[in-house]
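Practice problem: predict the structure.
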Amino acid sequence: MILKGRVWRFGDDVDTDAIIPARYLNTSDPLELAKHVMEDADKDFPKKAQKGDIMVAGKNFGCGSSREHAPIAIKAAGLQGVIAKSFARIFYRNSFNIGLPIFESVEASEGIREGDIVEIDADKGIIRNKTRNEEYSAKPIPPFMQELISAGGLIEWTKRKLGKIA
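Answer:
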């Protein structure tokens, strides 16, 4: 799986309330959540972000609550993945459960700047910064997790598998 897009940059310890503010959790509609993604960090972000863009952040991205609304809002906004130094464990799992690719890489997090164009080879764990002509290593996404992403998340993957059994 290859992803390529423009980067939006955020810092360390971006919690789930920053990703999708709690005042919008009265809905689970992904498109409604997408309208408010990251707005407390940058009020214009939902209008500026475009389909295919990629987020880059520092350490402990997605800390805070265990709600799946945070990765759902990112994905529904059209962002195709997140690169960070590290992820909160529950956010990490929720991301794969809903089909959002995420990549841990200290060097990519430190080297990539907002507006850069990056290309991610999920199979090999290689992130190429096309703007700066640099290459970074990330933990490759295991094939099973790539299946989850390709299917659109755990629920869709399960439906496909059960359909083959029935």
